[in-house]
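Need tokens for this chain, all 131 residues.
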Amino acid sequence: MAPADNQQEPDAIAPPAADTAVPPLANYKIETAILFRRRGFLPAPGFLVELSESGALARINLADIGGAEPWPLHLRHGDELWLSNILDDPLYYWLMEIEGDLLRLRLFRDTGILPSLRALIARRDPNQFRD
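Here are the structure tokens for all 131 residues:
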């Protein structure tokens, strides 16, 4: 059955557009140890620096690498990776940019993880999600 003229076939998952109508969300300092994960690569240690409902800023741990540049620093805009040790399940991100040892990431919006993510942020700022 063909879609109606006003409907589109679902495309492959793509990173969200930068010009969405959603207002920017606050970033919260969080500073916790994490692991960068990607299919086919060993986990790479790092630190979560900031977290929001839409993304994260994470630092690769260069101290434990021993001179070799870790694989997350070779990723390109739009590459996919997971961060673990934040919630029970790994969080799925797209790489937005790399600045030195910092990776700016966009969260793949999965409504199933949003309550857990909000609860984590609320523990840092109890006034964030008050009605």
